[in-house]
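Lab channel / #folding
Pinned by the channel admin:
"Please post every new chain as: sequence first, then the structure tokens as a reply. Keep commentary short and put observations after the output so the thread stays searchable."

First post following the new format, from NK:
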Amino acid sequence: MGAPVSNLNPKVLKWARLASGLSESDVAQRFKKDESTVSHWESGDSAPTYAQLERLAYKIYKRPLAVFFFSEPPEEESPEHSFRTLPGFEIENLNPRARYLRREALAMKGFLSKLHGGVNESWSSFKTQCAYEPGQPLEPIANRVRSLLQVKFEEQLSWKSTNEAFEKWRDAIERVGVGVFKESFDQDSLSGFCLYDAEFPVIYVNNSNSRSRQIFSLFHELAHLIAGTGGITASDDSFIDQLPLEHQAIERFCNKFSSEVLVPSDRFLPFLLNVDYSDHKLSQIAKSFSVSREVILRKYLDAGSVAQHFYDSRVFEWNQQFLASEKAKKTKKGGGDYYATHASYLGVNYLKMALTSFYRGESTREQTARYLKIKPGNLSKLEDFYFKKVGA
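Reply from TO:
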């Protein structure tokens, strides 16, 4: 057993645990220790060994080791500030993985700023042309967004799968200056989140969801950014009723905006005249638009054709079916290619940006590795993926 680490700041230990959304008991279980062990570390009555501190820093709290020797906990944006429209109980329910990804997203905003030289003209132009005011008619702004994304409705109908649809929409949104990243959230109730920024906003999408759900999340988060707020897409809308009225209005705008951009009302009108809510028919319509059954049913909900409780029950049923099918798939799958997955999470556009900066000598190998969240020695593995993807 190693010696306790000296000069460790117990206040930072406690801050790191709370910021990760973990209890003393949660941390103690990781070490197979009594809860009092963690309590004594945080009170300064004892201290972890260096090996235990490394595990706390890198595996559990996911923080640089040096931070635990700071005189005070570092200042950083809180979840409450990032997600102002989210009620307190929902923020408390964010799991450690989601909290870590929010911090990662803050870092990605900084990386995007460095790679762009601090200027994002595409986003400045887009947000100016899509400025949203509460109470504004929905269809004109949705049409304007589709026009600026340069995706014609006929092109959308030509896509062969929801995988292709997601990548096309992702590329279009990245072209207007939004960083889009994917990750596994380890929390099925969350579909995605965004962090608003006047220059470099970012969207994170939960890759554990179906592609059609990911597409809806993309536009829900884009709507938040247009409204000038950070936000979260949850699989259950019930939290909306717990919000202040102004925040309820934003969340409802985000949901309706997503549906309107993906399935314009004028294109959906024929389906309103011939109503069929069977799974088979909803799936048919959804496939033609490259969206989910949930989006189609939401169009009926927004039109007043179905009740909220009917919509909620069907969406819950579909989510349970999807989770069960994904669980079954995981028991059959092998490990997969980590670097291919990692690269796809970062996205081709971001990879190109980081690698171009490296090839031009604007970033060192170490800086580029930080941008890409890998070790410097593994940079070639992401390069291989990128060149295969772009056909170089």
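NK: The chain has 21 helices and four strands.
TO: also worth noting, Residues 308-332 form the longest helix (25 residues).
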